[in-house]
Amino acid sequence: MDKFNIAIDGPAGAGKSTIARLVANTLGFVYVDTGAMYRAVTWNALQSGLSLDHPAEIIAATEQMEIRLAPGENGQQVFVNGRDVTVDIRSAEVTNNVSQIAAIAEVRRNLTVKQKQLAVDKGVVMDGRDIGSHVLPNAELKVFLTASVRVRAERRYKEIQDDRTDVTLEQLEAEIAARDRMDESREIAPLIQAPDAVLLDTTGMPIPQVVERILELCRTEVGGGK
């Protein structure tokens, strides 16, 4: 089977990372979580005590840091300057600030270059918010995953119950809606559905069904898949 690239985009809580990883595992492709890269930049800025209101500091730090993605037993591992930050980048503080960091044009340009390089040899499943529209505009298959804000909040609530006992479902729903607005309204590479992307509303779909639908698209639209 010839290798090809798959771009999976969508808002927070749509299931992109889980579904992209499962699709990649089934096809024997490489999974790239671009959202983790932006989280890594955010975590690094917060750990370094940088002001998020001073983009120049964030840009300089991004240019100097090393981000490495590696497959792990429970998904993709993320390393910043050799340190495993896989768990750290999922904190509430990082989550609530990552959209602000992702809106910085030079940060996006820096990470986009890295992301494009990862997909040069094909055989990549990459998820994020601007993959099909900006990072991999020539991807052989593009999918835009979405779901209602309520359902996305419920999914995220189940994921973080052990770590954020102080947050309510309603607060989480408001946070996700606010992040949607920030991602959709940023000037550089906003969250949009690429014109040639297939829209999948996962509101009432279990994960295995979504994965199978994407594998079916690989077979029908690209001629690949299992």
Index terms:
8 strands, 5-stranded parallel sheet, 226 residues, alpha/beta, globular, Rossmann fold
Write a concise synopsis of the structure shown.
This protein has a single domain (6-219), classed as P-loop containing nucleotide triphosphate hydrolases (Rossmann fold). 49% of the residues lie in helices and 16% in strands.
What does this structure look like?
The chain is an alpha/beta fold and 226 residues long. The chain has a single domain (6-219), classed as Rossmann fold, CATH 3.40.50. Helices cover 49% and strands 16% of the residues. The protein has 9 helices and 8 strands. The strands form 2 sheets. The protein has a 5-stranded parallel β-sheet with strand order 2-6-1-7-8. A 3-stranded antiparallel β-sheet has the order 3-4-5. A hairpin with a 2-residue loop joins strand 3 (67-72) and strand 4. Helix 2 packs across helix 3 (55-64), helix 2 crosses helix 4 and helix 7 crosses helix 8. It is globular and about 50 Å long. It starts with 5 loop residues before the first strand and ends with a helix. It comes from Paenibacillus foliorum. One of its GO terms (cellular component) is cytosol. Its main location: cytoplasm.
Which helices and strands, and how do they pair?
Elements: E1 6-9, H1 16-27, E2 30-33, H2 34-47, H3 55-64, E3 67-72, E4 75-80, E5 83-84, H4 92-102, H5 105-118, E6 124-128, H6 131-135, E7 141-146, H7 149-160, H8 169-185, E8 198-201, H9 207-222
Parallel strand pairs: 1-6, 1-7, 2-6, 7-8
Antiparallel strand pairs: 3-4, 4-5
Helix pairs in contact: 1-9, 2-3, 2-4, 4-8, 7-8
Catalytic activity: dCMP + ATP = dCDP + ADP; CMP + ATP = CDP + ADP
Main location: cytoplasm
EC number: 2.7.4.25
